[in-house]
Specification:
It is built from 6 helices and 5 strands, in the order H-E-E-H-E-H-E-H-H-E-H. It is α/β, with parallel strands linked by helices and 156 residues long. A 5-stranded mixed β-sheet has the order 2-1-3-4-5. Strand 3, helix 3 and strand 4 form a beta-alpha-beta unit. The N and C termini lie far apart (40 Å).
């Protein structure tokens, strides 16, 4: 993850934000990128269709359909929000070695979103792969605004 430029992180997070806007009431958007910087899968929260189809799960499923024979250890997952424990576990099982996110679980809770109070770092620390790279706060303010707006839309 260190060889990826901060500007690429911002470009990819902007892409995740764009994907997230497909679901204005649950703007959890995800993109998976290869080591060349190409988007290879996208996902958005589709929980109304299936309660476990969070953005990360949706993107991992798409990636599995199209890229199952590729080396997933060269992928990076970008998400508008810190992955919940279910999604973080799925990321670990998939072998994706790096996660970049915008809004934290703590911020989502402050905004009134239902969240399990176990952050990604704790899931990683309790796994077999404590070396999985994770970085939060990329375009955090932009991602926070997505969830603030969605909170307002859900309560009106």
């Amino acid at each position: 993850m260190n060889k990826i430029s901060p500007s690429l992180h911002e470009i990819m997070m902007r892409h995740a934000i764009l994907i997230a806007r497909q679901n204005p009431t649950h703007p959890f958007g995800t993109v998976i990128v290869n080591d060349e910087g190409d988007v290879i899968a996208e996902g958005v929260n589709r929980g109304a269709e299936n309660p476990i189809l969070h953005g990360e799960i949706d993107a991992i499923n798409e990636c599995a359909k199209e890229h199952q024979n590729e080396d997933w250890s060269k992928f990076i997952l970008y998400s508008t929000a810190e992955p919940c424990p279910m999604c973080m576990s799925a990321i670990l099982w998939s072998g994706i070695p790096a996660v970049i996110y915008g809004t934290s679980i703590a911020t989502l809770k402050e905004l009134g979103w239902r969240q399990i109070s176990i952050n990604s770092q704790e899931v990683i620390a309790r796994s077999w792969d404590p070396e999985l790279a994770i970085r939060g706060g990329v375009l955090e303010e932009d991602c926070d605004r997505l969830f603030e707006s969605a909170s307002e839309n859900r309560s009106s």
